[in-house]
Structure formats: C-alpha cells, structure tokens
Amino acid sequence: xxxxxxxxxxxxxxxxxxxxxxxxxxxxxxxxxxxxxxxxxxxxxxxxxxxxxxxxxxxxxxxxxxxxxxxxxxxxxxxxxxxxxxxxxxxxxxxxxxxxxxxxxxxxxxxxxxxxxxxxxxxxxxxxxxxxxxxxxxxxxxxxxxxxxxxxxxxxxxxxxxxxxxxxxxxxxxxxxxxxxxxxxxxxxxxxxxxxxxxxxxxxxxxxxxxxxxxxxxxxxxxxxxxxxxxxxxxxxxxxxxxxxxxxxxxxxxxxxxxxxxxxxxxxxxxxxxxxxxxxxxxxxxxxxxxxxxxxxxxxxxxxxxxxxxxxxxxxxxxxxxxxxxxxxxxxxxxxxxxxxxxxxxxxxxxxxxx
Length: 355
Description:
Elements: E1 8-10, H1 11-15, E2 34-38, H2 44-55, E3 60-64, H3 74-79, E4 82-86, E5 96-100, H4 102-115, H5 117-130, H6 135-150, H7 153-162, E6 175-180, E7 183-188, H8 199-214, E8 220-225, H9 245-254, H10 258-263, E9 268-272, E10 275-277, H11 279-282, E11 289-292, E12 297-299, H12 313-316, H13 318-321, H14 323-332, H15 338-344, E13 349-350
Parallel strand pairs: 1-2, 2-3, 3-4, 4-5, 7-8, 8-9, 9-11, 10-12, 11-13
Antiparallel strand pairs: 6-7
Helix pairs in contact: 4-5, 5-6, 5-14, 6-9
C-alpha cells in the first residue's frame, strides 16, 4: 500500500498493541493522533484480538483497504473509527467510506489530524461516546466537547489567523413564516450571508419551531432557505464572541434549533440547496425527511478550525449515516455530492423545484 501515510500497522500489529503507546508527550503534545491499519488476511484469533484493541484504543484508527473488502473484517471495521475502501466497495455498510482513492483519502485524513490533533481526537471520542445515548444526552456531550475546544489552542490559532471582523448587521426579517392550513413553511431569510446560522437567525428559527411544537394544528413543517444556499453554516463573524464557555454551552443546548427539529422530526421536512456547510446539514439531518436540490453539496469544516460540529451534527448525522462516515466527512472536510448523500442516507430524496 505505497502512499499510505505513517504511522501504520497491520491487523496483527494492532492485535499485539501497536495502538497502545503513550498518546501525550511530556509537555502535553499529542503523539500520533491517527493510526492507519492495513486490512489484510488474518485468522479469527488475530481479528478478535485486533477488534478488542481497536475498541479500547485512545487514538483515531483508520482502516485502509485497496482491494475488495472481506466480510470477515466487519467486526474489526465496526471497532475502528472508519475504514477507507475503493469507490463502489462501500456497499458493505456505514463502517466503510470512499472518496474514490483510499490512498488520497488517507492522506487527507492524516493532514487534518496532524494540523488539529486535539480536535481530531475529541471528535472521535464524542462520536464513540454518544453512539448509544439518547439524542438529548448526546447533544449535551457534543456541547461539552465543543466548549472545551473553544478554549483550546487550535481554535485560538484559527481565530487569530482569521483576524477581527465586525459583527453582522441586524436583519429586518431573518426568518419568514407562511401558514396554509396545517402547513407551516419556515424560510431562512439572510440570503446576503448565505443564511449563516448566526444569533439572529438562530433565535428567529427556534421561535418558529417552538410555535410548531405547541400548536398541534400544524401537521407539517417545511424548512427551506432563500438565496443561493440553504445555509452556509455558523456565522464566522460571530465566532469567539460568546461571553464565556459555560454560556456558550447553554445557548447551544437550550436555545438551539437542533433539539426542536428532533422533537418535530415526524412532521418536519427540510429542503436544501446550494452549498450546505456545518449547521447547513447538521440541522436538516434531525428532520424526518431531507430533500436536496440537484447539485447540492455538503461539508463539515469544523475540525480545520480546531472544533467539531457544534449544531448537533455529531448526533444528527451519525443517526443517518453512522459514526464512521460522519468522522470521515468531518475529518476530511471534503464536499459530499448529492449522489453520495443519497446513497449514504444523509438525504432522503433529490428533487427539483418547490415542495
């Protein structure tokens, strides 16, 4: 497997403790946050030992397959954080992800983990920890981790490089509402900012969703966005402006739109288009039905900022596509096209025109 970055090991090496070395140096620096595992022939005993080692490892473990996946690897693949396979071979299940070339995918993941090792490790820990939890408890775990990273050096570095930006100007109507019988249509209405999920838009959206939770004559909620994109993610000009990390946690978990969309899931449809970034797919993934316009793309860039998805994405997205593909999407930061999103279950349909 020439071209796969190091560190890397075989299944036998993993079984013998290759992932068990110290994770932190004397000064707290992260040592090898990500380890690649070459999936190849191994007997049942070795596979079992490797699976146990993977399930208890502190590093991010990425399996790599350059040939045809073997069904016998499924248990090990479930214990790993994701397994990269050639295009078309991901049909085995959500444990497997492909961007077409496992070597190129491995290089992208290695670069991201090297640049932001703490965010990488925290993301993997959150995805593993929240997998068995209910949605509300899982959202709390995500938010605790997000607040931790907000206080970290990797986010501080990103924020410093970005520089000071003026806060966005106020919006007259950040969200539009239209009622027709039992249908409530909610439209994100900051097209000049690509409907960035800033404070004003967030508060207006949660007010609208809260209305639907208390009015049982609203039998259907359709959420869409005005302008070129449904939502381009969090408003970057507001990043780092929360008074303190504890307040930031309470705002995310008690004043965000994710929990309300989860409550309304059976009645909610989200229609997305354009470039959907961060919250632009984290929030829709809570809904019972997500419809994408042709050409829509999805991206989770937060790890490159020293963070992890913080609008509920470590909860909503894994419940659609699995924690493995969620880690792949968030760590690679690459765009997911509509064909892949439909195949994975990130969206439920691809349709042109209004609902």
